[in-house]
Amino acid sequence: MSDSSAPLTRRSALGLLGTAGAALTLGRSALAQQSLLSAPAPTFSGPGPLDAWNGLGPLIALPQKVPLIRLVDRPPLYETPRSYFQSAFTPTAAFFVRTNLSGFPASVDLGTWRLKLSGNVNKPVSLSLAELLRDFEAVSVNAVMQCTGNSRARFQPRRPGGQWGNGAMGCATWTGVRLRDLLDRAGLKPGGVQVQFQGLDTGAGAPGSGGASYQKSLNLDDPVLDECIVAYAMNGQPLPLVNGFPVRLVVPGYFATYWMKTLSFIRVLTQPDDNFWMTTAYLQPDNARGNTTPQAVKDKTVKLRPVGSMPVRSFIVTPDETVKVPAGLPMTVQGLAMSGRGKVNKVEVSSDGGKTWSAAKLGEDHGRYAFRPWTFAWTPKKPGQYTLAVRATDTSGGNQPDGAIWNPSGYLWTTVERQTVTVGQAG
Ligand SMILES: Nc1nc2c(c(=O)[nH]1)N[C@H]1C(S)=C(S)[C@@H](COP(=O)(O)O)O[C@H]1N2
Ligand SMILES: [Mo]
After folding, report:
1. Which stretches make up the Oxidoreductase molybdopterin-binding domain (predicted)?
2. E strands of 307-382, at which residues?
3. Most C-beta atoms within 10 A of its C-beta, which of 68, 223, 294, 356?
4. What pLDDT was estimated at residue 208?
């Protein structure tokens, strides 16, 4: 941003305030977003800066939400601004919003709404929210939900779909009833292979999708079923409608595509689900990183499988590129890490663009599925341009590649994040 010299002067002054400066700096990036409101809406999303933390769009508030970065209106894709990731839990009102179909309910009448379990079960079950609250033990999990296409804007060559920056993710405390308890109530009959989830939304989906309902299924022998929660609360509040009121499925460690909003139908299937959203969309190359090449796709040699758990990632939240740091000033580089495949056990930071690395300090442990905050004390000695980088590992042996990955749908981005910082003379 080189709009005028006044904010630059202000930024330099704020930089001298240390941590208070960091908070104010984030205020500035919100201001930068705000100024987009008066600019004409972008009609072309690419190529754009590959290292921009957030996607590009105006700040717009949906009902029950604070202004978020609107990438697309219908179906809605709203990204969480970077400043909301200063803490390990993402405020409910700032949580990103994404819906695959054009018709999302504008209200849900709890007088008639029921969660229905059917299919290959002993006894079909229909439960009101009052019954879910009264008849089942309440349990909570801290877990990150992340869109499979988070950070898609980084892909080169570009992939179609929402050009997300890093903000299609968030961490919340999810409270509700165990999926297992509901399945036990209905009773599984022998011969089931998958359990299918569906919400209340309808309407046209991606071109060629055929179906007008969004359905996702998990294998009945997938251990993640024991972790799943049908959640009626998020950070101790009812879910905003756009985030799934009255209940949504929480699948800890898995990508958000399975986290069904306005969950209303649970069906036990005796055949693998072959609907569009299971067999055409949300497929990744059949390797842990989901990595392949455009050439391999052209040659039709890429084997695909449904996406599942989230590989390890880490993010620099502050400083951002608007900070000007005076040389010699001790500062804190701060951010988050996460993995759906094991606990984050190490975060390392580089201040020379990835040549040398030092251990960051891990912050409070909110559980293996939650964001793990980290901090790194840094005193840049000399003026100049610095490139900060961060990488994390997890207990499953997962680590982050320092180079692009690529796949046809723009999924599973997990590359080392970088942040350029300008350091000036202190006097
Ligand atoms: N009912 C319903 N649930 C859904 C979807 C949807 O289109 N309909 N999209 C999924 C995808 S792809 C994402 S990224 C998350 C987004 O959840 P959020 O809007 O609460 O952030 O919801 C998941 N659950
Ligand atoms: Mo998604």
Report:
1. 105-277
2. 313-318, 324-326, 331-338, 344-350, 358-359, 361-362, 372-378
3. 68
4. 62
Task: List beta partners, residue 177.
Answer: 230
The model carries a pTM of 0.89
pLDDT at 74: 81
Encoded tokens for 61: 């508030």
Query: What was the pLDDT predicted at 202?
Result: 87
Architecture of domain 313-424 in CATH? Sandwich (2.60)
| Cα distances (angstroms) measured from residue 34 to each of 6, 39, 153 | 17, 9, 21
Q: 313-424: same fold as 10-281?
A: no
For residue 175, give Cα distances in angstroms to 228, 275, 340. 11, 29, 19
Residue spans of the domains in the chain: they are: 10-281, 313-424
What's the CATH superfamily of 10-281? Oxidoreductase, molybdopterin-binding domain (3.90.420.10)
DSSP 211-226: -SEEEEEEETT-GGGG
**Ligand of minimum distance to the alpha carbon of 259:** 1
Q: How far is CA 29 from the centre of its chain?
A: 20
Give the C-alpha separation, 186 to 338, whole Å.
34
**If you measure from the C-alpha of residue 99 to the centroid of ligand 1, how many angstroms do you get, rounded to a whole number?**
5
pLDDT along the chain (427 residues), means of 10: 33 35 38 44 46 90 96 91 98 97 92 98 98 98 98 89 94 98 98 97 72 91 98 98 98 98 98 94 96 95 97 97 93 98 98 97 98 98 96 98 94 96 94
202 to 89, 99, 105, 198, 213: CA distances (angstroms): 31, 10, 8, 10, 5
Residue by residue, DSSP assigns 109-154 as -TTT--EEEEESBSS-EEE-HHHHHHHS--EEEEEEEE-TTTTGGG
| Closest ligand to the CA of 409 | 2
Look at phi and psi of residue 223 and say left if phi exceeds 0, alpha if psi is from -120 to 50, else beta: alpha
For ligand 1, say whether the CB of 256 is within 6 Å of any of its atoms: yes
100 CB within 6 A, ligand 1: yes
Q: Are 54 and 67 in contact (CB under 8 A)?
A: no
For ligand 1, whether the C-beta of 83 sits within 6 Å is no
Residue 51: predicted pLDDT: 65
C-alpha span between 307 and 313 (Å, rounded): 16
